[in-house]
Design a protein that fits this description.
With about 725 residues, the protein is an alpha+beta fold. The protein has twelve helices and 37 strands.
Length: about 725
Amino acid sequence: MRSPWCSAVALAAAVALCACADDGMGPEPDDAAEPVVLDTDAAVPDCGFEGLRACPVITIDRCDHGLQVHDPGTPIDATDDICVNHKRHLAGPGFRGSWTDWALSNQRTLAIDEPIDWVMHLSTHNAYNNVADGYLVPNQVWSMSDQLDLGSRFLWLDLIWARGYVRLCHEVCLGGSRQFAYGMQEIATWVDANPGEIVMIDFEAYVEGHFTEVEEPLKEFFGTKLYGPNDRVDSSRWPTRRELLAMGKQVFIGARGDDSYLGVDNFGNTVHRNYIDGRLDIRYIKNFDLERTAGIVTDCWGIQADDNPAARTYFGHNDGFWVNGEDRSLPGLKVNTGYVEGADVADYAGCNLPLISLDYFGFKRCEVVPGCVELGDILDRAPDEERAPYAVWSWRIDDGGQYGDAALLDGGTGRWQSADVAEPYRFACGRPRSESARDPAAWPDTLGAEWRITTREGTWQEGGRACLEEYGADGFVFSVPVNGRMNGRLRLADATGGDVWLNYNDLKQEGSWVINQRPVAHAGADRVVECNGHGGTPVQLDGTLSSDADGDALVLEWQGPFGTVTGSQPTVLLPLGRTVVTMIADDGYAGVDTDAVVIDVVDTTPPVIHAASATPDELWPANHKMTATTVSVDVSDACDAAPVCRIVSVASNEPANGTGDGDATPDWQITGALTVELRAERSGSGTGRVYTITVECADASGNVARTDVIVTVPHDRSNPR
C-alpha cells in the first residue's frame, strides 16, 4: 500500500521522485508512553511535535510534517494520541557508518581547531523545501533530519510571515507550508541526538514586525546550545569547533533579508546579522574560478561581476562564509545557474570553499532505502551521481583507518591511507599550527601554504625529530593538512611524489583519530652559578615545567658539552663560562619541542692562601751582600686547580741608605715569580731590619688573594732565634 507521502508526490508528477512501498518507517512508540506537553509561548505550538501529543482532531494537520498520528488503542479518546516519526531518517541510517560518512566526519574532526568559517561544510539549499515534508516544487528529497544524517551541516531556510505564523516557504506560502517552530524543533531533536556536531543555519527572513515569533522557538528548542551574538568573545574571528563544544554550543544562526527592517535586529541576540558577508552571493557556479598546477588545485577566486571576469577576489580566511552552489528549484534554471556535479564538489574541496550548497542532496540514497524506488526526474533536475563522496579530499576510498595507526599521504594520488607506524617513510613538515597552539592568532601560516618534506625516512614516531633536525631552524614542525587546499600544497612541495607520514594517528584509542599536540619544552630560567669544581661545576638542570596538552609522559633529553643525558632534573658538569644547554621534550607520539637554557658558571671567589714562607727567612751575617730568597706558597682555589702566585712588592722597615757605614742600594731585587734577592744589612742603631714580601695569588678568572711573608736581618746574634 502506497503511503500518503508518495501519493502526494505522485499527484505532482512534474516533480515526482520516489515511489514507496509502505509507511511503516521508524519504530512504533510504547503504548504506555505518556504524552508530554510543552510549556511554550504563543509562537511555539503546544502540540504536533514528535513524541508529544497530537493536535486536536479538528486541526487540519494534527502532526508536524514528516510525522504521523499514533493511536495507542483508544480511537475514541484523541487526547492520548501522539506524533511519531514517519518520513524522517529514511536515508540517513543507510548512510551512517559508510565510508563517506566516516571520512567527512573525520575531516570535520581534523579541523577541530580551525575557526568554523575556515572549514569546508556541505550545505543544503532550501533545506525545508523537500519531498518528505510534502512541498510540491522541492529543492530536496529528504527531510532536514535526513539531510543532517547525510552530512549537511549548513541549512538554508526561507522565513516568511504568512497566515498568522512565521512559515518555512519560498516567496509564496501555499497551504502546505510548514510553521517555523516545527522546523526548529526537528533540527533541535537531531542536535540533541548528536552532541558532538555543529549545525549552522541561514535565514533569508521576511518577517517584518514578527521578530518575537522567530526568537521564541529558537530559545525554546536550542536554549543554551545556541551560539548568539553576545557569546562571541574574539571579534577578529569565528570560534573553532573545539571552542564551541567547550562552551556547550552546537548551533549558530545568521540572517539576511530586507535590510530596511532586518538590518537592525538580531532576534533577541539569538541570530548573527550578515554573518555571511563577503560570500559569493547568488551561489552561481559561473562566479567561481580556480587554477591548477600539475593537475592540483592551487588558487581559487570568486568573480563578483559577470561583465568583468577580471574583477575576481581571492578568498582565504577571515572573509566570512564563502559559498557556491546551485538552484534546481524550477525547470530551465540549469541553463542560467548550472548544476554542481561531483567534479565541481572535488574542486571546491580542493579550494577549501567553506560552503558547498547542493540541491537534491543524497538523492541516490533512494536506491538503498527499503520501499523506495527511484523513478527519475522528468524535468532533469535530479543529480546523476552521489556528490558527497567528492567532498572527501583526504582518505582513499574504503580506507576507514583499519589498515594501521597513522596516516600516510600517497604522493601519487594525494589520498591518505592508514599504515603501520613501523614502516619507514619521509615526513611532512609545516609551519606550527593546531599541533602547537590552539589559538589561530598564534599561527604564522594561517592558510597552511608552506610545506617541506624531509629527506630522512623513519618510523612514524620519528616524525617530530626528523622535521626538527632538517627544518627546525626555519620553524617547521611535523604536521598534517587539515583541508583540501593544504593537502594540495603539501603534494606540490614533494617533487618526487613519494609517500609521506602525516601527524595524524589513532594510537591511543583505536578509531579515534587525532592530531598529536606537541609538548611544550621548558628548560628553566637562565641562571648564574658559582664555580665549585676543578673538572667542571655540578649543575642540576630543571625541566619540570615542561608540559604536554595531551597528557603524554615526556622524555626530556638534554644536550651540551657534557654530551646527552635524560631526565627531568639531571645533574651535569659544566665548564667555567657560558654554556647553552638545549632540551628536547619528546611525548612518544612524534611530538617534540625544544627549549634552551643559558647557564653562566662564574668564579667570583679568590684563591685561599693557607700558608706562605721564605727560605731563608733570616739573613746573617749582615755583610751587605744580596742573598737569594725563595717564597713558598700553599694555595688552593675552588675552580682553578693551579692558581698563579707571584711576588708583587717588597718593603723594609729601614731606609735603603743612610743607616751606617757600608750601606748600598738597592736592598732588594725581584728575580722571579717567587724569588727575590734581599740585602743582608741593617742599621747599627736600630733593632734589626724586617723585609715584608707581599705575595699575590690569582686564579684564571682574575680573582686575587694576597699575603705577606717576613724575612729579618737581626741587629746582632746576641739573641738568635
